[in-house]
Design goal:
Length: 139
């Protein structure tokens, strides 16, 4: 476990006032916790700029249930990316729509390629990729 370090920071008072207002709205317990969260995000953004970073997350897809070719195509795409797909869950959202969650883990550039292929499949209504990283490079 990391040990805590104290450090002094000089910042313009109007910026600090705005910051304090935001952290109160977002229910951060302390200013230190909010700053730590921002610094962590700063580090993560840098890690995400590396295409070889190992990422974990999900591709969330909504598509038309009635388009049979689309269902086959989405399945075929997923069979080509087994090395980065952990699992998938299919939810029959309503009469017309299916919701699929594809859980991914692996090299960022490969995961993004899969997400782009899914998003580009004809008949997909909406697709979003949500990623997190522990900051390690993929094997
Ligand atoms: Ni369905």
């Amino acid at each position: 476990m990391s040990k805590l370090v104290r450090f002094g920071v000089s910042i313009a008072d109007d910026i600090l006032n705005q910051f304090d207002k935001i952290i109160k709205e977002k229910d951060y317990p302390t200013r230190s916790k909010a700053i730590e969260s921002l610094v962590r995000q700063f580090i993560t953004n840098r890690e995400f700029s590396n295409a070889n970073t190992s990422v974990t997350g999900s591709i969330n897809v909504i598509y038309d249930h009635h388009k049979r070719e689309l269902v086959n195509e989405l399945t075929n795409v997923q069979h080509d990316f087994q090395d980065v797909i952990v699992s998938s869950q299919h939810i029959h959202l309503d009469h017309d729509n299916c919701y699929e969650i594809i859980v991914v883990n692996g090299q960022k550039k490969k995961v993004e390629k899969l997400a782009n292929l899914v998003k580009g499949t004809k008949g997909v209504k909406q697709s979003s990729l949500c990623l997190v990283t522990a900051g390690k490079e993929a094997d």
